[in-house]
Amino acid sequence: MSLEVFRGSELRGTLASRRFERDVQLPARSRRRFSFAAPIETVPRPAVARVSTADGEEERELARAEVPLARIATGGRIVVAVSSEIALDFLGQEGVRVVYPHAENLPESWVGWSGVDLVVVRDTAFHRLAPAQATALERWVRAGGTIVFTGGTTALQLASSGLAGLVPVEVTGLVERAGLPSLGRLAGSAARAGAEVLAAEGGLPLVAVRPTGAGRSAWIAFDPADRAFASWPGRPALWRLVAGEAAALPAEDEGWREPLDDPWIAPLAAHARVSFPSHARLAVFLAAFLLPSLALLLLPRRLVPRLGPRLRALLLLLLAAGASAAGWFAFNRWLFRGDDFLLEAARVKAGDGTALLSRRLAVCSPSGGSFELSVGPSDSRVEDVTATTRDRPPGSLAIGLTEAATVRGQAPRRFQSRLVVADAVIPFALSAVLAREGDGARLTVENGTGTTIRDAFLVRGAAILPLGDLEPGPALINPVPAPGGSGARGSAVAIADAGRRAFWERESPVIGRSGPVLVGWLDEPPMAARLGGEPAAASACMVTLEVDER
Fold it and tell me: Rounded to two decimals, what is the model's pTM?
């Protein structure tokens, strides 16, 4: 079965579709319910749901239904409030929409949370929450999501819900503070390791925030939806502290880029196998065509008496046809690649035994034909961000979800490309601890990933310390000089590979600003994509890990 959604505009000639497929088994006269999580940007057409079967090589459609989406508001930010009451509408401002799903209907895959900016859990017992739903929510947070838990009697059930690992505090009981009547009831709690306590009363954390993978989880010990806080002027500032950018108004989206102009892909495209021929090769080719042609035209008839005008014209036509065939073969099949190829740029943001793997995949097509791209497990978020213009029809993109996600599509024209973004949360056993010792510190790195991290270095403040290759195996201890000390290094790092160097220059402004960060490179991204079974023609994969400083 499949679900096809549309985006763009028919009027502007930018209509494109994405089809999500799933293999299912339906016995005769059976009734089953299947769900799809599909990104909806615009609604130029109703979505189309199909059920089909394959008779040999031919596909036969069994059922078809159109799903009208005209009433669905697209764009803006989405806040998911898992609450027993509709009590968090005050978070809905211009450009922000608050939705209230039932806990039992929460997604079973982290991809289903795509498009959500903030999740707030308030006064909700998760006794019906399935393990897959709890895992999906945790993986979404680790992939960069933000979740806020509020206090109350139901907070005592978080320990048995499967979400206890996300809460930045340990809830131990209920406490009522007579000295804080405006706060009402507080849930007794103790901050966990790594949590930052923003407000406390009597040794109990009132507001706490903790990084969780690439995301963050927050705790508010009281009920922020209580009427006592309706007129509190500090409420907006509180939500900015606990939710960060997830509670802010959306920024203007950047304009569409051509795939090979993408900041991650552009350095790889400059060093790909496709290149224009050198001037010397062009000169040899032109000489091989022009010299015989000039000889046929300029040789006097007395030197070649049997070469009449008709025969000369015929020879010139044959020479032109031969030059055209040779040029087509040389420029399309020899000097250029004759088949599609893949450029892959990736970043692995590691932490807590897992990592967010973000990839940009540019499928370059000299032939302009169809392609099949394997991107890894089905629990991957896949989006097509190819630019759509009048001069370049977008075509369609199908995403098959079986044991592995497969992207099938077609490049609009010859020598064009498609840009696909694929994100996944993967196991990644990499840890690092920086322990202070006297005038310096010791860095302990344990690489349990099973692969070598190349040319690693430590970013600490304005200093960079090269570490070399980190082989898989037990912990490695490296002495780290104090910032500004005699052994400290400068803020520059030597990266020989042009693609990696450009990648680092783009990402470095936001790395190491809040604490020490370990940076390295992989020869190939984990779950590297394959185009027709072939690896990427050019790739770059950067690994980052926030170091635990003690």
Answer: 0.65
